[in-house]
Amino acid sequence: MALYNNTVMEHFMNPRNVGEIENPDGKGIYGSPVCGDMMQITLSVDENEIITDAKFKTFGCGSAIASSSMATELIKGMSVEKALELSNDKIVEELGGLPAVKIHCSVLAEHAIKNAIYDYAQTHGRKYAGLEGYNPDAEHHDDCEGSEEGGCQGCGNGK
Amino acid sequence: MKNVYLDYSATTPVKEQVVNEMIPYFTEYFGNPSSLYTPGLEAKEGLITARNRVAELINSRPEEIYFTSCGTESDNWVLEAVAEALENKGNHIITSKIEHHAILHTCQHLEKFGFEVTYLDVDSEGFVRPEELESAIKDTTILVSIMMVNNEIGTIQPIKELAKIAHNQGILFHTDAVQAIGNMPVDVKDLDVDFMSMSAHKIYGPKGVGALYKRRGIQIPSFIHGGAQEKKKRAGTENTAGIVGFGKASELARMNLHSHMNHSSKIRNMMWERIEKEIPDIILNGPKDFSKRHPGNLNIAISYIEGESVLLMLDFNGICVSTGSACSSETLGTSHVLNAIGVPVTKANGAIRITVGDNTTEEDVDYVVDNLKQVVAKLRELSPVNGEKGW
After folding, report:
1. CATH architecture classification, B258-386
2. Which residues of B are known catalytic residues?
3. Per residue in B227-250, pLDDT tens?
4. Cα separation of B48 and B37, whole Å?
């Protein structure tokens, strides 16, 4: 009997890729402590546009931490192009499933990675089909649980 | 692995003496208490003893005790029955913002049928301000319902004073005392309340049994309709074994009240002293004056981390606590109680509730605090949020 399966628990208790890369090629933050979830992803990308390293720091519940750990594991060694295709469904699948109410945690991980790649693309003058029309802050509020009355102050979407 | 249960406000283990007294009512005295032959009368005898014991715990008359299936049923019954009975007098009910959902959701239900509910604010420690109750009363007010002890932050309300304010205006007063009985002296005559909800499983009794105290002479309609049980006020064949268990638990709670209170508060205080000294950036939610707080309750907001991860990591080490956080179990949303006392959402997300009880030992305190320190340090290491960043 457990809230989460063994894979999720393993990634929660022993998370991979914890930390912050110094002078990263890309950095993305998604969510806010007001919403109960916040992820920061930093990336190292080489000249062939391969993600050589990924690290995370996450404020959140067990599944948010496990999703961050799994997501960073999955994108390490991937091309940037390929990493942009990483969906939250894939993260959930690799984790062996999450409870229905926790699926949004995997969405946060997907967005945090996209934001980090967006930052990389902006600072390195790259263009990717997967980022076309992408606004790093736009969809955040949809995932934000926030408080009932307060809305999400953290993402600036107010009441 | 060591197991340390620290969620006595959620439920308690059933005491052995309670179980022993219940068992014959499943097998030997299995008769329906409404039956007139000997096995029925034997079962009925069990109910009589239990009723006497519950009454003695709260200094009521036995005939003022009505057994129900739980505290929630008692709360539902009072609100709906008073609303129905006094519909012609008025449609206004006063309660507080920090009540249990058994009260809040029943009030919301009544609002759909034209009742008006005032949800009183509380101060930063969760106390209802008597003057605010006084000014909320209208000509149409028919009931005031304020919980005696808050389940999350342990605030003990000045019930006697609040009941007096209601009575001065001729208004009925109910209190949800589910967290209070067995944890503080409760005397319905002294408090002068009209209705009081209780539950067995918070006082080392079984789940599935509660009671409503209803002052003699007040007439309210039934909530569960059917047979003539509980003086025609609460139909349904009695949960004989459960009620017998509630009776025994009440007797033990009365006899052990002071040792239980002393033990709980001693352990709780030891735990808080160490936590306060050894873990930085934490806030104690609820009354700072521990004499106005549930003897076993601590509610702490741990900055920069999220409550469910704390719960999970502690559980991994055999320690059970609960959270008031956004990510807790099924309900994604911060605690309405912490919101009402003004805890910022960022801090409420990192809140945990620790409630100690009879089986918590001094050795547990060290095991728990040592573990909590490690868990907090590990999760803060993982967190992108810290003091410097201003959250």
Report:
1. Alpha-Beta Complex (3.90)
2. 327
3. 999 999 999 999 999 999 999 999
4. 16
